[in-house]
Design a protein that fits this description.
The chain has 154 residues and is an alpha+beta fold. It folds into two domains: 43 residues, no CATH class; 84 residues, Immunoglobulin-like (Sandwich), CATH 2.60.40. 16% of the residues lie in helices and 32% in strands. The chain has two helices and nine strands. The chain has a four-stranded antiparallel β-sheet with strand order 3-4-9-8, with no helix packed on it. Strands 5-6-7 form a three-stranded antiparallel β-sheet, with no helix packed on it. A two-stranded antiparallel sheet has the order 1-2. Strand 1 and strand 2 form a beta hairpin. The chain is elongated, with a radius of gyration of 23 Å.
């Protein structure tokens, strides 16, 4: 048995997160990014809300998962070409002696940026928060909507 104990002590436990962190850091350095912006820190990945983007004849709709945030914790801004969503989900401070077994939710600052399509009327963008989902309505401008144009073949 002493031989088995030596072998067990010599083995290192495989940690898939460390390999993923190393890969992420190498990729970040190749892209000229700060390693901290793409790596796991304090047991959590740097995060951004997941989004769905859809469109109908009247508007584009962006749905962003922001569970746990209040409307005053979310900032929405725009410039001529972009719509930017930012905010911060703060980790809950639990001083009641709870021992955590699993922590899978993401915390920290986030920012998402979306290119505005040319046919959006930026002055009429509306936002609402419903059940942890941020809904951004980007109405289309009637004067810019694409109209079918017949092109003759010569």
């Amino acid at each position: 048995m002493p031989q088995l104990e030596k072998i067990m002590k010599a083995l290192t436990q495989w940690n898939p997160w460390s390999e993923l962190d190393e890969f992420s850091n190498r990729l970040a350095s190749k892209l000229g990014r700060d390693e901290k912006s793409t790596s796991r820190t304090a047991g959590n990945w740097v995060w951004a809300p997941l989004v769905d983007v859809s469109e109908n004849k009247d508007e584009y709709l962006i749905k962003a998962e922001v569970a746990g945030l209040e409307k005053d914790e979310i900032k929405i801004s725009q410039d001529k070409y972009n719509l930017i969503i930012s905010g911060e989900r703060k980790e809950e401070q639990d001083n009641k002696g709870h021992r955590h077994h699993t922590k899978e939710r993401f915390y920290g600052s986030f920012i998402r940026s979306f290119s505005l399509p040319e046919d959006v009327d930026a002055s009429k963008i509306k936002a609402e928060l419903k059940n942890g989902v941020l809904l951004l309505h980007l109405p289309k401008d009637e004067s810019v909507k694409a109209r079918p144009v017949a092109i003759e073949v010569s």
